[in-house]
Write a structure and sequence with these properties.
With 128 residues, the protein is mainly alpha-helical. The chain has five helices and two strands. β1, α3 and β2 form a beta-alpha-beta unit.
Amino acid sequence: MRKSLGDPIAEDLRFVVKAAVGEENFIEMQPNRSNNYCCGGGGGFLQSGFPDERRYYGQRKFSQIDRTGADYCITPCHNCHSQIHDLKEHYEGRYHTVHLWTIICLALGILGENERDYLGPDLAELGT
């Protein structure tokens, strides 16, 4: 999606995230939009059986996220979520990895109890 659909889709996603979390809580990665780095989890790489290579490739994405100092990294798809969460665990990052839909449901007050696993203590009890 990052390269194929380009910046207009990136802007739409930014609008949704900012509406859900508040613009003051949105932290931009550098570089961003269609110049953003791939996490390295897509295209079957998660299931490839080469976790060391996948993590080595993903180190650039981990560093990019880590430099933001953000408490959360919101991911748009399952592959990104799994890869970015694994990178956080492997490289001992401090951010929480959450699906975009988790944030949307939390903002709407409809997030189920079993969908709070990846939230930090600051958000895990919100709206319960």
